[in-house]
Each structure stands twice: as C-alpha cells, then as structure tokens.
C-alpha cells in the first residue's frame, strides 16, 4: 500500500486533469471572502475536516441502522443528511485542494474522485429508498461507504503523511530552548519594517510599532513560505504580513490568519525588553 501511495504522489499523468480542475476551482470560487470562509480563516483552523464529520457520521450511523429491523425511515433520513451535508464539505475540500503542492494535488485528486463516487452512490441509495426500494438502497449505501472509506484513507495520507493544510511552522517551537532569548537592541530596531532573526536556529520575524514589538515564526503555516520576504499591509485596520508564496495574510499584533489559503493562525512568541534588549521565549 505504501508503494502504491508513493506511486500516486509521483503520478504526473494526473497533472493535466488536475491543472484543469485547479483552474476551474480558482475561477469559480473567486471572491476572497468566499475562499477565506471555505479555508476556515474565521475559526483559525481548516474547515474541511470539521465539515466531513457530518456526512461520515451520518453514513456510518445509517450503515448500522441498515443492519437492524424497523429502522428504514431513520436510515433513510441519515443517508439524506449525509448526502446533503457532503456538498459543502466537498466544496471546502476543493478550495483547499486548489492551493496544495503538485504532489499533494495528485493524491487529493484521487481522494476527491473516490468521495465523488461515494456521494453518487449515496445519492442513488437515497433515491432508491424514497421509491421504497430499500434493498437496493442498502446495497448502494454499502458500496458508497466503501468508496468514501477509500477516500478517507487517502485524506488521512494527505494530512498526516503529506502535511496538507497542516500547520507547517508550529513544530519549529520544539527546536527553541526554554528561557528568554535576546534578539535585538531596541535602539537599532526600525519602525514598521520586517526584520528577520534566529532563535536557536529557528527563523522569526520582528515587527516594531512604537514600543510594541511582535516576534512571529517566519515559516508560513501554509507551506513554509518565507514571511520575512513578505509585504506588510493593512487589512481591516490591522498591520498584516502577506506571505510571498500564495498570499496568506497574518495579523502582526496577534498572528490571526486574515486571508487564506492558510487556515491556521501564525505563532507569536512572548517578548520583553531588558536593559534595552528585546527578548523572546516559548509561549
Ligand atoms: S506558503 Fe502558501 S501562503 Fe504562505
């Protein structure tokens, strides 16, 4: 299975279809606000994994009820709920997928295809049940569960092996030692300019506004882009750093993500000034 997944990650034959779908998704989900909503910017975490809980839970529950006598109506209701709720989950997933790296998009394409097959089978199951053909509805639902399970397996590979939409910077905290670390003389720290420094080999950015200084991990939580090379811009009245790779924006006075494709906030380090020297430590 591992060899098969590695082959899938390297399957360049999928790129033509993937590139076409990526262009379609990007052209369709155009307003930034819609994209941000679907990325989960408003909750500071990716939305897709949360949304999939509803169809997965409904379909698994329906599969259990289908094994019990006298549960046809309840099973039909759950298949209906799962089928309807799969649509927003799929749209959020497509929105995340369009901003993944090429290797991730290959696996994501097959993940989406397996789930599309599962969704189609469940839609057929719902139609059959509503016409009173419960035997056919049950059979289609179990086939749908098989396809959706294959999709979920690939989704797990995407997240846990390939790190899709997982915070790429947070593990850097493990490389920072305990205690306060000196970073810069306040006297030499320019106003409203990004400055890059290192804390125990971990790159951080410093941003001074008056006497307030933000110290933030430099690696973008989306795909490790160098925030130190990004622009500072104002969004909704807040100074934000914009990642130079795909445009995710993070508040410099808190780290909250303001625009995706990152669905994760960026980590800020606590600071203090001792004898004119700026210091930072682990949160
Ligand atoms: S690496 Fe993609 S937005 Fe920063």
Concise account of the structure shown:
This protein has helices at 2-9, 15-28, 32-39, 48-51, 53-65, 72-97, 102-130, 134-161, and strands at 181-185, 194-199, 202-209, 212-217, 231-235, 238-242, 249-251, 257-259, 268-269, 271-274, 277-280.
What would you note in describing this structure?
This protein is an alpha+beta fold and 283 residues long. The radius of gyration is 23 Å and the shape is elongated. The chain has eight helices and eleven strands. FE2/S2 (inorganic) cluster is lined by residues 220, 222-225, 243, 245-248, 261-262.
Annotate the secondary structure layout.
Blueprint: H1 2-9, H2 15-28, H3 32-39, H4 48-51, H5 53-65, H6 72-97, H7 102-130, H8 134-161, E1 181-185, E2 194-199, E3 202-209, E4 212-217, E5 231-235, E6 238-242, E7 249-251, E8 257-259, E9 268-269, E10 271-274, E11 277-280
Helix pairs in contact: 5-6, 5-8, 6-7, 7-8
The structure holds FE2/S2 (inorganic) cluster.
FE2/S2 (inorganic) cluster binds next to loops.
Main sheet strand line-up = 2-3-4-9
Got a strand count?
A: 11
The largest pleated sheet is described as: 4 strands, antiparallel
Q: Low-confidence segments, ≥5 residues, pLDDT <50? A: none
* DSSP strand content: 15-25%
Overall outline: elongated
What small molecules accompany the polymer chains?
Answer: FE2/S2 (inorganic) cluster
Number of helices: 8
Would you list the SSEs in sequence order as H and E? HHHHHHHHEEEEEEEEEEE
Structural class by secondary-structure content: alpha+beta
Helix content: 40-55%
Distance between the termini: 40 Å
């Amino acid at each position: 299975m591992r060899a098969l997944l590695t082959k899938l990650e390297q399957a360049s034959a999928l790129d033509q279809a993937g590139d076409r779908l990526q262009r379609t998704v990007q052209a369709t989900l155009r307003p930034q606000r819609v994209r941000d909503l679907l990325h989960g910017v408003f909750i500071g975490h990716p939305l897709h994994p949360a949304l999939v809980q509803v169809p997965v839970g409904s379909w698994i529950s329906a599969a259990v009820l289908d094994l019990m006598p006298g549960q046809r109506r309840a099973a039909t209701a759950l298949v209906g709920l799962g089928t309807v709720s799969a649509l927003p989950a799929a749209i959020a997933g497509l929105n995340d997928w369009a901003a993944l790296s090429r290797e991730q998009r290959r696996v994501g394409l097959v993940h989406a295809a397996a789930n599309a097959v599962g969704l189609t089978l469940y839609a057929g199951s719902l139609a059959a049940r509503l016409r009173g053909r419960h035997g056919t509805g049950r059979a289609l639902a179990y086939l749908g569960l098989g396809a959706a399970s294959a999709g979920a397996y690939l989704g797990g590979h995407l997240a846990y092996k390939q790190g899709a939409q997982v915070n790429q910077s947070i593990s850097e905290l493990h490389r920072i030692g305990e205690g306060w670390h000196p970073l810069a003389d306040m006297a030499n720290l320019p106003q409203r300019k990004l400055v890059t420094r290192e804390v125990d080999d971990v790159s951080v950015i410093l941003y001074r506004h008056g006497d307030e200084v933000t110290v933030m991990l430099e690696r973008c939580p989306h795909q490790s882009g160098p925030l130190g090379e990004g622009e500072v811009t104002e969004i909704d009245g807040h100074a934000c750093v914009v990642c130079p790779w795909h445009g995710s924006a993070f508040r410099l006075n808190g780290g909250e993500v303001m625009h995706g494709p990152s669905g994760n906030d960026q980590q800020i380090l606590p600071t203090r000034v001792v004898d004119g020297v700026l210091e930072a430590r682990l949160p």
